[in-house]
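Blinded run. Sample ID left blank on purpose so nobody reads anything into the name before looking at the predicted structure. Input follows.
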Amino acid sequence: MRPSDKRTWSNKLFGLIGLRVMKTAIATLTAIYAAILLNVDNPQSAGILAILGVDTTRWRGLKTVFARLGASVIGLIVASVLFDAVGFHIWALGLFILIAFPLLTRFGLKDGIVTGSVIVFHLFARGEVTPDAILTELKLLAIGLGWATFFNLVYMPRENQVLDALRARTESMFASVFAELARYLRDPGALWSGNELLEAEAAIEAGIEAAQRSRENRLIWRTRRNRLVLQDEPWLLYFHMRRSQLESIQAMSELVALASQRVPQAESIARLFETLTDDVRSDFYEGNTEQALDELERQFRGMPLPATREEFETRAALLQLCRELRRYLTIARREKKRRSPQAAAHIQ
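Blinded prediction complete.
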């Protein structure tokens, strides 16, 4: 097999297995070997705890590890008192669940219920509640969750390439939608499936998820209302902006469909949409389209009243279309960068 073939197969294997699965496997083996080296009883339990501790982002990993640790300690306390009082009977496990699970949920430690159950069931299998037994469980917790936390923090995949691709996809779909709207305004008989709207929505939702993962992996904090919170991710702001604009575009698409005949104003709006096919890919807010829209609305106000009902309905739809277009531009003006050096850069 040639080296290039080996690389191809390795890439396919990596794509099939996934990074989280590989991290989980390494964390599990590391935890088990660490427990063996430290001569802790039942080292395989450390591996199980490591499996439960590996997560998708740094912040989520830290949050769930603290929940699992807290739930396990509380579970050990409840189980120790219970087993010592009633003995190691099978029905005592059911009683433990009835007591501990609502308690953990009340304390906001629901994510740690499974981990706590593993520790308690392991204590039950030992058949004794002694300082040595409790210490062993705590060691297993520290080893399993500790290595899981280490691998959660040491490496998480960067989302930049994914986010760049989703941004390009979103902007391409927006441009296609504007081109189709311009075409329909010039030719009301033109057919359009509207698939670009669905693809844009899918790209935006995927972008929000990827941006959320990127935010949780950066672990940069800021103060809000006297408490620490994760700092906003620029990509998250960007895709939320696009989501708001998509709502406006969907409304515009419905209004364009009401323009059942060609009127001079439709041509003017069509030119605005053609301008937006280029502006949508720009990092900067130029303001040219908004100025042209201002002029178009002035023309609307200076025109005589419609002569027929059909013309009235068409012009009413076009006027509402202008207002929806202004809402789209207002979102862009609020979120995009200006070419002025003094303006703040919000969207990268």
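Unblinding after everyone has recorded impressions. Residues 3-7, 340-348 have pLDDT under 50 and may be disordered.
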